[in-house]
Amino acid sequence: MLPETRRALLCRLAVGQAEGRAPSMMGAVVRAGRAVWTGARTSVPGEVPHGDVQYRIGSLTKTFVAVMVLRLRDEGVLGLEDPVGRHLEGTPVPEATIAQLLAHTSGLAAEARGPWWERTSGHLRPEPADLFGERPQRLPAGRRHHYSNPGYALLGALVERLRDGAPWDEILRREVLEPLGMARTTMRPEMPHAGGWAVHPWADALLPEPAQDTGLMGPAGQLWSTLEDLCRWAAFLLRGDERVLSASSVAEMRAPAVPPEGDDGAAGYGLGLQLVRTDPRRAVGGEGAAGGRRLAGHTGSMPGFLAALWVDAEEDLAGIALANCTSGPAVGGIAADLLEIVANREPRIPEPWRPAADPLDKELLALTGPWYWGARPFVLRLKAERGLELTPLYGAGRGSRFRPEADGSWTGLDGYYVGETLRAVHAEDGSVSHLDLGTFVFTRGPYEPAGPVPGGIDAEGWRV
């Protein structure tokens, strides 16, 4: 980090702590898999918190639960489209899919039955049925995004059920935290840890907040963690780790699973991750990315604590902010601003271009170049590991990346053709006649007379 970048980061953190009236605040920036900046501010002279001090992270817990569910999917134990009732008995929404629970589209109530669950003991809700009141489902499953904390309690119970009844936090420690070196992420606070406070809205006064064990609601927001551990978690959410979850499965978590919300369409949700697009008009330290940055991560709040973690996959960059107060500082915006400052002041330097490492397939090379959907020109490029990329030759339009399949076809990975099949169709002489992409025909020339264009080509051809 350049000295002026470090000063800008510290300034943003200091302004956030002072204006938000937080007893303490910590921040970090992760780039290329490692922490490149950390900072802290406190109201207690001589007691600046360090990176091994625990803070409660609230709903960031949900990102850990989602990873455990995706691990089960990758092992073939469950499918994301499975109804949750197939694997977990006694749920109030047995037909809701696991994917809908992950993306908060199950229609379940936002909060648990009984008194404010974040401030009361989990003993008040000893069984899964005790999590829900008389009307557990508030909306039809799959119709719209409706954030549900009890929905993640069900996912935690699902993980326990499919891992032979072991407690979800023990499964998390064994399968996720230990491989990633996150020894200071725990269910209950372990010294050193920050105390949780409420700050009076109209006076500079403090009130200690309780730290309850929320029992079955733990998967919705129970975890405590440190800045150092969350830097490791941010690196994982950017790159994956084969010991825990592959990079492709982590990227799937970051993909939109529900339509964006709000008038500006700036907020959405993936599989356990919140998705936001930043407003380029409020960029800090530079002009910002055109159209705003696409961030994935989560915010969290529990009595006495606020947390936020955002990653920008395109920049391989993350911002983190933690505070020990119930309300006040906008830690979500602060974490995004920390990321934005670095992205603008010190843009990512791309890796050098290098020729492909794998042997060149001449048949695939022959497929590359211009193709035409009717009169619209596209270009097909050969990528690493026999992948293909189809993009419009100019302007906006339907484009996608494709992964190769064992039968010689390709499957769309993103864009309009995600999930669709691309095939090279051969003529009787063995040459490639055309490309078939989800029934659309691409030929080597615009409405090529010899091409199998559905509906045929006018006998007189092109004219002036």
UniProtKB/TrEMBL annotation:
Coiled-coil positions: none
Question: Where is the DUF7586 domain positioned along the sequence?
Answer: 361-444
Matches recorded under InterPro entries: AmpC-like, Beta-lactam-related, Beta-lactam/transpept-like, DUF7586
**Gene3D superfamilies named in the record:** DD-peptidase/beta-lactamase superfamily
Q: Which SUPFAM superfamilies does the record cross-reference, listed alphabetically?
A: beta-lactamase/transpeptidase-like
Residue stretches making up the Beta-lactamase-related domain? 17-337
Pfam families associated with the record: Beta-lactamase, DUF7586
PANTHER family this protein is in? D-ALANYL-D-ALANINE CARBOXYPEPTIDASE (PTHR46825:SF7), D-ALANYL-D-ALANINE-CARBOXYPEPTIDASE/ENDOPEPTIDASE AMPH (PTHR46825)
**Which protein are we looking at?**
Beta-lactamase
